[in-house]
């Protein structure tokens, strides 16, 4: 019995140590990442480096909670404006890595190549999107090309790799000279050359086919979407290529 208790305590201690070590690594760069040219887009404490689309500051609906950027829809009920959160900087060739977690029945997205101009009222009018969703309980989960990891409304994931609601998902988006590749939890979900015949066909079969400016800007902001549901993003980093 004593041996069993000691063994159990050792296992519990190891799990706690692993959990603490993992938490310490979030929103930080390793020496290897720094050497490779990675930079943090979110410091885990402030919204520095971000602003609400077409605004000079960050909407009060976006908060930093427990080391994550959290969209709080309840804040909008008390008068706070919402809106997509976008990077201050613009990027063209890069690898983007981050983690996201969605609320039950929630919807959001990672939008890139965003051209910020008052004539485009929303980020998605110019920027393609990697979908963020509760596939099981949001209505979009039943729509092809609208699931987590998909190139939203354009190309379905090669494999469903999303984790259950409440768990963190790991994303990597690579965009190099027009070649766009998505990974979700280590699984490659999408690969397509922007501007290619395949891309043009995907666009022609999507809701974006008549949208002026959609997907045409090679350089642009990266956005985290306010779709009206609670969502969390953290460990956001980028390496320009």
TrEMBL record:
GO terms for molecular function: hydrolase activity. Residues 1-23 form the signal peptide. This is Uncharacterized protein DUF1080. Keywords: Signal. Residues 37-239 form the 3-keto-alpha-glucoside-1,2-lyase/3-keto-2-hydroxy-glucal hydratase domain. Pfam families: 3keto-disac_hyd. InterPro entries: AL/BT2_dom. The keyword Signal applies. It comes from the Bacteria.
